[in-house]
Design brief:
Layout: H1 2-14, H2 24-33, H3 38-49, H4 56-94, H5 96-102, H6 105-113, H7 120-127, H8 134-142, H9 148-158, H10 160-172, H11 178-200
Helix pairs in contact: 1-3, 2-3, 2-4, 3-4, 4-8, 4-9, 4-10, 6-8, 7-9, 7-11
């Protein structure tokens, strides 16, 4: 785990172009150059994303370009889940002082403002919004009474639509279109509706 985190973190800095920016094309070129280690590299980058802020969408796009939609989605999702669970566990174990040291004051304020959003729909909903930082949600949830089970399964399904969309775009080597975002919105609404129905009929462990 430590090797994945350190390797992913180092790669983030090494893969920036001359302007200090990342892109799916740059990442894809380097991932391909890693050969048989490329798949592990994608996972490592996503683990690092839970601790080092950079656009994870580029990783999913690059993974799609290198490995196709299915494998690109699976690898990106796996890395995000590992990183998210580690960040959640660290915040739960070490508490607010650690999180305060890791984040900027304005980021900590955002966590405090969203501390009450621990219902199942809210926890899935924030995962569906690309502009909300992934690591902030992980740390914030770790500081609440949310159970490991609820955090794990809401994260697992909440990050899937956007991950799949970005990997598919990378596989097709194109820019996101308006139709893509509408499909993501439709999938998100359908997912939340499904969860609400499941809770109503007692399928999910909403209270745990």
């Amino acid at each position: 785990m430590l090797a994945l985190l350190l390797g992913g973190g180092a790669a983030v800095w090494l893969l920036k172009d001359g302007t200090g920016a990342l892109s799916g094309d740059i990442l894809a070129a380097y991932i391909k150059s890693w050969g048989i280690w490329g798949k592990l590299g994608v996972i490592g980058l996503m683990v690092a994303h839970s601790f080092i802020p950079f656009p994870a969408e580029f990783v999913a796009i690059a993974a799609g370009m290198c490995f196709g939609t299915v494998w690109g989605t699976l690898l990106t999702w796996t890395g995000a889940m590992i990183g998210g669970l580690v960040a959640f566990g660290i915040a739960r174990k070490l508490g607010r002082p650690f999180v305060a040291d890791m984040l900027k004051p304005e980021q900590l304020t955002k966590i405090d403002n969203g501390a009450g959003l621990t219902s199942v729909p809210a926890m899935i909903g924030v995962r569906l919004v690309p502009v909300i930082a992934f690591n902030l949600i992980n740390y914030g949830a770790g500081l609440t009474e949310v159970s490991w089970w609820r955090f794990t399964w809401t994260t697992a399904i909440g990050i899937l639509p956007l991950t799949f969309l970005m990997a598919m775009i990378g596989d097709q080597m194109r820019e996101p279109t308006f139709t893509d975002w509408m499909l993501l919105l439709g999938a998100s609404v359908a997912m939340l509706a499904t969860v609400q129905l499941a809770r109503r009929f007692g399928v999910t462990r909403a209270g745990k």
